[in-house]
Every structure is written in C-alpha cells, then in structure tokens.
C-alpha cells in the first residue's frame, strides 16, 4: 500500500494480527477546523494561506429576529425581505471593517405571538443573542367572519410580556417592531381565504397594546404605523420589495440611532 508522506497526512499505526490502521490528518483537521468555524463563522481567523482572504475578528455580536411571513421575506423578490436586507448590510460591514456580527432570520410564516413564544427560548439558547428583535402581531389580529381576532388582545399582551421575560435571560437589548395597517381593499376578506379579514381598526388596537407593554417593560419599540401606503403591498397584507426596503431602512436607522447594532 502506498501512503502519502506529505505533511497533510498523519499515519497512526495500530498493530493487530492482521493489519495496520492508517488515519489521514485531514480527517483530524476537519474536526479542529469545524470548531474554529463555529467560533468565527468564517473559518481560519488568520485568513488561511491565501493573503487575499479577509481577516476577521472572533464573533462580536449575534442578532436574532423573530416574526412571521414578512420577517421571513414574503414577497420581496429582489432581496428576500427586510431582515435579509439587514443581514446583507451588516455582512458588508463585516468584510469592510473586519468585525463579525451574525444575523439570524427566525421568521416562520403564519406564526402568532403564541407560536413564537413556544420556540423563542430554545432558539435563543442555541444562538446566545446580544440583540433580539420581534416583529409580530399581524397574525394575532386577523379576524374571522364575526370580527373575532385569532388571538384575543389580552392574550396577545400576556404573550408579549412572556416573550420579554424570556428574552431578558439572554439580552438587555430587546426591540419590537410595531404593527402597520393593510390595504383593506384586498383584505376584507383576504384574497386566498374568504373567512379571514385584516381590519386596520383592529390592527391599531394591537399596535397600541404592544406600545403600552414595551413602554412598561422598558424595551425598545419601533413605530412603523405610518410608514407604508397601498403601493407598498403585494397582496394587501405582505410587503413588496419597495415596502421591505422601507422597513429595512427604518429598523436599520433605529438600531444605529440607539447604538444597538
């Protein structure tokens, strides 16, 4: 058997009655390198053997963004949503300034405040965030034929309080993006489900409840209630690419103004 004698291989011999056991070094290196990758997110901190590779510091900050379909990115066909636009903006800074801020998009379409509450602690435990952003309430406020919201407003307030309590275990920097009105010409009822209604009068009440809780709990609130007009919506509910760009800029400016990024 021919064995590569280059420095990339380590030959370990274990004598048995039948054969020798050979373990290539690259298998050992893979484990060591994967540990470094998890710490930095970008592989070797010294840039490796290629001098053109960026030299990045160890991970400085983790940002977790929780929400539903708009957080996930529907229907931004250009850059996959306001959270991804935030990530692209921060990633560019990572390379230019040689630091490392990691943005996790934890949006799940259809989620209510209760759905996010079920997963927020486990998601945070696995990522240890420095900054937690929530964009929620829209799905809570969706009404049935009798104008009954999916999640009663009292339950919504309780869920937000619990989300804040859990988040404070991980970070003092907690941000809630407020609610905004829809294009009611397309949401009374919604186009894909005639049993569901998005009513701006109801949405305003949920936004006011969110504003009240965040003020009481001394966490950040981003007011976007007057940010959009009908041209910013794809289907009356979800933002189009232009709407996502507006939301991205509003959140980005808020984070930079408060020195949270």
Summarize the structure.
38% of the residues lie in helices and 10% in strands. Helix 3 packs across helix 7, helix 4 runs parallel beside helix 5 and helix 5 runs parallel beside helix 6.
Write a concise keyword list for the protein shown above.
261 residues, alpha/beta, Rossmann fold, 5-stranded parallel β-sheet, 7 helices, 38% helix, disordered N terminus
Q: How many runs of DSSP E, i.e. beta strands?
A: 5
Strand order of the largest sheet: 2-1-3-4-5
What structural class is derived from the secondary structure elements? alpha/beta
CATH architecture: 3-Layer(aba) Sandwich
Q: Are there runs of 5+ residues with pLDDT below 50, and where?
A: 1-48
What is the third-level CATH name, the topology?
Rossmann fold
As for the number of domains, it is: 1
Tally of separate helices = 7
Order of H and E elements = HEHHEHEHEHEH
- Termini separation (Å)? 56 Å
Report the sheet-strand fraction.
Answer: 5-15%
Look at the structure and give the mean pLDDT.
84
- Globular, elongated, flat, extended or rod-shaped: what is the shape? globular
Question: What summary fits the major beta sheet?
Answer: 5 strands, parallel
Q: Provide the CATH top-level class.
A: Alpha Beta
CATH superfamily: SGNH hydrolase
Helix-residue proportion: 25-40%
Cα Rg? 24 Å
């Amino acid at each position: 058997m021919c064995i590569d004698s280059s420095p990339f291989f380590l030959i370990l011999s274990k004598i048995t009655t039948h054969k020798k056991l050979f373990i290539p070094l690259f298998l050992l290196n893979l484990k060591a390198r994967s540990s470094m990758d998890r710490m930095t997110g970008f592989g070797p901190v010294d840039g490796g053997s290629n001098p053109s590779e960026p030299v990045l510091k160890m991970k400085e900050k983790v940002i977790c963004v929780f929400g539903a379909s708009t957080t996930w990115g529907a229907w931004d066909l250009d850059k996959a949503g306001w959270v991804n636009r935030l990530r692209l903006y921060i990633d560019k800074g990572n390379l230019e300034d040689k630091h490392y801020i990691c943005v996790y998009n934890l949006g799940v379409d259809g989620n209510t405040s209760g759905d996010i509450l079920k997963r927020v602690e486990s998601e945070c435990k696995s990522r240890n965030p420095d900054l937690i952003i929530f964009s929620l309430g829209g799905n809570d406020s969706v009404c049935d034929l009798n104008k009954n919201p999916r999640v009663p407003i009292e339950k919504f307030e309780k869920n937000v309080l619990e989300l804040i309590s859990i988040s404070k275990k991980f970070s003092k920097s907690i941000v809630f993006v407020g609610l905004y009105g829809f294009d009611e010409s397309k949401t009374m009822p919604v186009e894909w489900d005639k049993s569901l209604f998005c009513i701006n009068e109801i949405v305003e009440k949920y936004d006011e409840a969110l504003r009240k809780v965040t003020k009481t709990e001394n966490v950040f609130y981003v007011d976007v209630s007057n940010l959009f007009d009908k041209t910013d919506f794809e289907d009356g509910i979800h933002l189009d690419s232009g709407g996502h760009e507006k939301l991205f800029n509003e959140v980005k400016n808020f984070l930079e103004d408060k020195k949270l990024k």
